[in-house]
Q: What sequence folds into this?
């Protein structure tokens, strides 16, 4: 079935079989919104690979995948899109192959570039949501500033060891409540590394934020951050008290 | 009494605190900064600072029963 046929079915009030198990939660209107949704995923590594997989299966209709990196052996422990066969391949291009194999309803494009000040606005243009699947703090700041300029939400996620944190920034928000300063580009992941369950868990929460943003359902993690530390089964919702704490 | 929760790598700063949880008795009008001096944790190591689950500042004056959460920077992906 083509994307056009899928859209036509949904518009006629029929849920295509491939989305049948979405029906009770997302519904036909929600599914249509997802299929018309445009999401930029910045980073196609640990977080990004999982986010891309989930958004693809959910049926988010347009994906821009941005990553200048190539797969290497040390990605195999956690990066869903990395296989022994595609070592050396650009991550965004590998993502496009995976998306095409899973869901032909999704229009997907690879941008094999690192985000930088010159290209950020252009790479994110047209997206309704930006997903932060980056692996360093300064690029996250650039992404949040660019999302702010474009007036689009950014779904933030970061991981290290057993720990992850997720929040949604809307225009007017920033990362200042999360990072006290931006003098260091890396966090404790340099010590703890990133075993596979942690990016999968954080990415699932990020994908859920995208669904809520695109369908308008539920309650966003806005002005609060979901922090988890699975070593001690900690899940906490941390609140940003004042506008200036996160702006 | 103030309850302090150290998260992730910060736990190793006070290894005798089980799961990174400890209590501190401080003089009245003590700030978060004073607490950190008392428990010998460098403020530089902390990025998110939460008091009773809400973001706060090092200058905040603590009161009896407050729960202070100290978080290092997390940046991986």
A:
């Amino acid at each position: 079935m083509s994307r056009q046929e899928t859209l036509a079915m949904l518009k006629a009030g029929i849920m295509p079989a491939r989305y049948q198990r979405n029906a009770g939660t997302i519904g036909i209107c929600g599914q249509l919104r997802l299929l018309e949704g445009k999401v930029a995923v910045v980073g196609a590594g640990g977080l990004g690979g999982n986010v891309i997989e989930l958004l693809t299966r959910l049926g988010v209709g347009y994906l821009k995948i941005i990553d200048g990196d190539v797969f290497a052996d040390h990605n195999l422990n956690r990066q869903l899109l990395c296989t022994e066969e595609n070592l050396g391949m650009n991550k965004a291009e590998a993502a496009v192959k995976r998306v095409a194999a899973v869901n032909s309803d999704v229009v997907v494009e690879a941008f094999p570039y690192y985000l930088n000040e010159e290209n950020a606005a252009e790479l994110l243009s047209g997206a309704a949501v930006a997903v932060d699947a980056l692996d360093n703090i300064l690029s996250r700041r650039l992404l949040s500033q660019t999302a702010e300029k474009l007036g689009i939400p950014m779904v933030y996620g970061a991981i290290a060891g057993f720990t992850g944190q997720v929040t949604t920034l809307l225009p007017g928000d920033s990362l200042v409540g999360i990072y006290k300063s931006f003098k260091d580009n890396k966090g404790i992941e340099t010590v703890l590394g990133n075993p596979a369950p942690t990016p999968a868990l954080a990415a699932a929460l990020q994908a859920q934020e995208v669904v809520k943003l695109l369908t308008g359902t539920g309650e966003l993690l806005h002005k609060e951050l979901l922090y988890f530390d699975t070593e001690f089964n900690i899940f906490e919702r941390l609140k940003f008290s004042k506008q200036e704490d996160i702006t | 009494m103030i309850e302090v929760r150290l998260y992730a790598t910060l736990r190793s700063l006070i290894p005798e605190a089980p799961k990174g949880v400890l209590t501190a008795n401080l003089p009245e009008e003590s700030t978060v900064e004073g607490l950190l001096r008392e428990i010998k944790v460098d403020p530089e190591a902390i990025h998110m600072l939460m008091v009773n689950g809400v973001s706060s500042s090092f200058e905040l004056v603590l009161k009896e029963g407050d729960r202070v959460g100290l978080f290092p920077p997390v940046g991986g992906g």
About this structure: The longest strand of chain A covers residues 154-160. Confidence is low (pLDDT under 50) at residues 243-247 of chain A. The first helix of chain A runs from residue 3 to 11. Chain A touches chain B through 50 residues (CB under 8 Å).
